[in-house]
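Dear Dr. V.,

Thank you for agreeing to look over these. As mentioned in my earlier message, I'm a first-year student in the group and I'm still getting used to reading structure tokens, so any feedback on how I've presented them would be very welcome. I ran two proteins. I've put each sequence directly above its structure. The first is here:
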Amino acid sequence: MDFFTNINILFFLAAYLVGSIPFGSILAKTFAGVDITASGSKSIGATNVLRVVKETNPKLAKKLGIATVLLDALKGAVVLLVAMYFEVSPSTLWAIAILAVLGHCYSIYLGLEGGKGVATGLGVYLVLIPIPTLIGAVVWIVCAKVLKISSLSSLLGLIAVIVSASFLNDGLNVGSNVPMYIIAFIIIYKHIPNILRIIKGEEKKVI
């Protein structure tokens, strides 16, 4: 019974279960009547929401895309903020962050399918390493406007976070940068198909 009363375990479960909520899919089905898990890239992220919904309702697509980014970012951040209120250890906070991103990428509600983890990663990074994350967000936005390739912009923003955090932080309060790298690895791993298309010059632009 101690397993279910241990506050760390409860937060770990909450992080994964909340992180698994497929907000992009829910929003697209509710407001546009489309199943994004069966269309486009089949990802539950904002980019696929934007692409799929745009085919029938461009104005709604932009709104749903923005809402998806915000909700996906919040689902990891909110669990972290609640955990901070209960003063759990820094190592527990980073474990929560990793599990939230894993939940988004491998959602229990979608048979372990999911998104690429960018927005959820942004949310947890923003709570735990705010300054590097803001730097990465600026890089992400600028690259998105200039390159108009969502995946490449996201990866460049992620690299900016990692590089700036490596200079500005000393062990992330846990004696190591490994938790930050694990989240980055998950996001990059989920982007392997995109990376291959970028190399081949086949990755589609978001116009």
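The second protein is here, in the same arrangement:
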Amino acid sequence: MFSLRKSRPLLAGAALLLSLAACGGGGDAQPAASGAASSGGGAAGGTIAIITVDPSNPYWKAEADTAKAAVEKLGYKSTVNANNNDPETQNQLIETAINDKVAGILLDPAGADESVAAVQKAVDAKIPVVLINAEISKAGLAKAQIVSNNAQGANLGAEAWAEAMDYKGTYVELFGKPSDNNAQVRSDGYKSVISQYPDLKLVGKEIANWDRQTGQEKMESLLSKNPDVKGVVAGNDEMALGAINALKEKGKLDQVKVLGFDGNQDAVDAVKKGEMVATVLQPIVEGTNKAITELDSAIKTGNTGVPDEKQALDCTLINKDNADQVNNFQLSS
């Protein structure tokens, strides 16, 4: 299991609805089950609306699965839907939750700036909101904003990748969704380490929006321009796995060092096979459990029980030494 550090101020650093059981594709909208409205100070019970990003991505599926189990263990009902990183879809989901008088909302926001108004609507309706995985650009609305320490994790990954590169060679970067602050924080974290090694040269960068297929397509484009590239740093595992697919098709995988971020099982397996240098495991299971605990407290007492709204949880480097210990985003001791 992860060792969660004490909550502290955040360092640096989303098909309309998808049911929890869906691992891909869209679905028809499903109204949230009704529950008692709460201003943050009422009795437990009612429904908690869980709004994730895209359960076809293993990371967000783990987030949604964990949240649903934790909510129901506490005696609430739950609804699980996805915003697909689309602010308008997210707005509709928030409005549905408000109309159904849910007790609280756990939200993985569709953009830092784009999500402020949606969270404000819920707060105005006296429904406590806790954010998980990504933050919004305004403090004082959500009861808590709980994210991975993306800067720390990117530093860990970049150092391991640079060593595997022998601190020299050309490389390319696959960048996540620009509206998600995590994309820039991770990119900056990579750069802060890699810039220390002048013989590592960035020769291309593409936005691949956290997606495996897009990552493969963007990597194919990068390879056409840089056929002899020696490394890839990717903002998440799905993009890294897409890059691996592209490299395999070109027969170049054994010549290129790939770095991922998230710790999903496909990436962990790629590390075991030597297809990926490392991935950075985000503590999404522990972070989501923590978020539900704090949301429960906010519903019952009006407060989360922790002093800081913004909380960052450290990540863990996963390489061949510890990959066998990872199962569904959890690291055994």
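From my reading of the second output: Residues 1-42 have pLDDT under 50 and may be disordered. The radius of gyration is 20 Å. Does that match how you would interpret it?

Kind regards,
E.
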